[in-house]
Write a structure and sequence with these properties.
The complex is a heterodimer. By secondary structure, chain A is mostly helical. Chain A has 2 domains: 19-141, no CATH class; 170-312, no CATH class. Chain A is built from 16 helices and no strands. In chain A, α2 runs antiparallel to α3 (45-67), α2 runs antiparallel to α11 (202-214) and α11 (202-214) runs parallel beside α14. Chain B is mainly α. Chain B has 8 helices and 2 strands; from the N terminus they run αααααααββα. Chain B has a two-stranded antiparallel ribbon with strand order 1-2. Chain B is globular. The chains are: A mainly alpha, B mainly alpha.
Chain lengths: 328, 224
């Protein structure tokens, strides 16, 4: 009898008192500014997207856990976070049923099949985005719109045929470019450009990230290393680094996706390797790849490498001595 | 298979307990590649069944004359003969199916289901039992392919039962723009197959629990 109540676990034994629901609620709060910016720039349609994604993820978690007879964990808010992030990384005008189905895929395949919260290998929201884009690429990619009064034509003279091109698409198509691209900084920072629902406003994202930093839920190590790596590599290849930092999903991905506890390495050394890897892949995809944006795939690829990084960056045991003539 | 078992159980063994695709995970490569349409699945399944029956029969007839050291080359020559027959016949009468299945028709030569049955069954059993085993394994392979195709074809294209060789365009279940292209890609193939195998294992567990007899026959590892 006594055995079952004794919990034996390795150090550390200090408990912080921060529970999963409290943490997840803080993450939801930190995402509110970016969602509000999305609604402000892309209209009330963005609310439909957010609602559909949350219905998909929370609904999937509830239904699938009921069917499989497991404890229903929708109370820990993690499915809500996944739903909000899923809507934020997809274009604002994606059909609602794509969001619901991607939410089901995200929770069912990426999270629950791997064992639920804490066991998923890939970031659920990004895997959901990858699924949606691979499954319904035409519908998903035509969902980008420019906020009213800030059409692509303002950016590129005589270029009004493509209304769904994001700044990074314009860069990839060679419509804009050169150094410096100062005239784009302000719209990219405030967010009245085309892009995914929650990624366009750097300002709103940084406000949310500041809240998470203040609550000490994330550290700056991964985001700054990630963004810094992108800046270094893009400037090496003659691009404007600030344009690359502000455009696309880099800030959203660096602060809210790459810092995910479950799918990022455990200790500082590993986290640095992880963030550099994300940055290198993002920059290479943006500069040389077929896609205009690489944040989603680079984080997913590095997620897959996390077990390897964790093994490589394993901290030395206390008192462990390196044998002479042996390197490692 | 030391003791001779009744032919009916040899046949049903291939469909159920030792289903090559769903239980032994053999022949994954053609399974993922061709299960894009039910007609492809049937075509591939029947082609493999023909080769299985033919090669099992010949290997069984030759089993006393085959030196143990060179049995694999002998099996391969026998199998390749039947694959060539299937390849040419399909090219002549079902050209569109042949084009869709492409390299996977000649690749039946190295399909491990067929080699596995030659090695594990036909080289140790009589001709009649070997034919029945080939039929059972072929039926199991065909059944699995049809099942998987019946999931992937409608989800990936919105159409079911399209058969270009018969001049049948299939039944459109929903508009193409709703079709999830990822299901037709290898990724979707692996995910669908994984979910299907999971469901089959679940049903098998339930069935075993209900029957409460027979030792557990856990699936063994597979190849490509």
């Amino acid at each position: 009898m006594a055995e079952s109540t004794l919990i034996v676990s390795p150090a550390p034994h200090i408990r912080s008192g921060v529970t999963t629901p409290a943490l997840m609620r803080d993450v939801v709060i930190s995402l509110i500014p970016a969602c509000a910016a999305g609604v402000y720039f892309f209209g009330a349609r963005a609310l439909v997207s957010l609602a559909a994604a949350i219905v998909g993820t929370v609904g999937a978690e509830y239904i699938l856990e009921r069917i499989t007879g497991r404890p229903v964990t929708i109370g820990d808010w993690s499915a809500v976070v996944t739903g909000v992030l899923l809507a934020m990384v997809l274009p604002p005008h994606v059909p609602w049923w794509i969001l619901v189905l991607s939410g089901f895929f995200t929770i069912g395949v990426v999270k629950l099949l791997f064992g639920g919260l804490g066991f998923n290998v890939f970031n659920p929201a990004l895997a959901g985005r990858a699924f949606a884009v691979a499954a319904w690429s035409a519908l998903a990619n035509s969902g980008y719109i420019w906020p009213a009064g800030a059409e692509a034509a303002h950016w590129v003279q005589g270029f009004d045929a493509v209304s769904t091109a994001t700044p990074l698409t314009l860069l990839k198509m060679g419509e804009i470019g050169g150094i410096p691209m100062t005239r784009f900084y302000a719209p990219l920072f405030f967010g009245n450009v085309a892009g995914s629902l929650g990624e366009t406003s750097a300002l709103a994202l940084l406000v949310g990230a500041a809240y998470l930093l203040w609550r000490e839920h994330i550290s700056l190590r991964i985001p700054l290393t990630y963004i810094g790596t992108v800046a270094v590599i893009t400037s090496l290849y003659g691009h404007d680094p600030l344009f690359h930092i502000l455009s696309g999903g880099l800030i959203l991905g660096a602060f809210f996706m790459a810092t995910d506890y479950v799918t990022s390495p455990m200790n500082p050394k590993g986290q640095t390797i992880f963030a550099i890897g994300c940055g290198v892949l993002t920059a290479l995809i943006r500069i040389f790849g077929g896609y205009p944006e690489g944040v989603c795939y680079s984080i997913l690829i590095m997620n897959a490498a996390v077990p390897l990084i964790d093994r490589f960056a394993r901290p030395k045991r206390f008192g462990e001595v390196k044998a002479r003539g042996q390197n490692a | 298979m030391s003791s001779p078992s009744p032919l009916s159980s040899i046949f049903s063994n291939g469909i159920g307990k030792e289903n090559p695709t769903l239980r032994l995970l053999l022949g994954m490569c053609p399974t993922i590649a061709v299960s894009l349409a039910v007609s492809n699945g049937i075509g591939m399944g029947l082609a493999a069944t023909f080769v299985l029956v033919g090669s099992n029969l010949c290997v069984s007839l030759l089993r006393k004359a085959t030196p143990n050291e060179i049995r694999i080359p002998v099996f391969i020559v026998v199998i390749a003969t039947f694959v060539t027959v299937v390849d040419l016949v399909m090219n002549a009468y079902l050209p569109q199916l042949h084009q869709v299945l492409g390299v996977f028709v000649p690749l039946i030569v190295v399909n491990c289901i067929i080699l596995a049955r030659a090695e594990a069954f036909a080289s140790k059993n009589g001709p009649l039992a070997s034919i029945v085993d080939g039929l059972g394994m072929g039926a199991g392979f065909t059944f699995a392919l049809v099942l998987l195709s019946a999931i992937r074809e409608p989800l990936g294209t919105g159409i079911i039962l399209a058969a270009p060789d018969l001049g049948f365009e299939g039944i459109r279940l929903f508009s193409k723009e709703y079709a999830a292209a990822i299901v037709t890609q290898p990724v979707g193939g692996f995910i669908s197959l994984g979910l299907l195998i999971g469901a089959v294992n679940l049903l098998a567990e339930r069935g075993k629990g209900r029957a409460g007899r027979r030792g557990s026959q856990s699936p063994q590892g597979g190849c490509h």
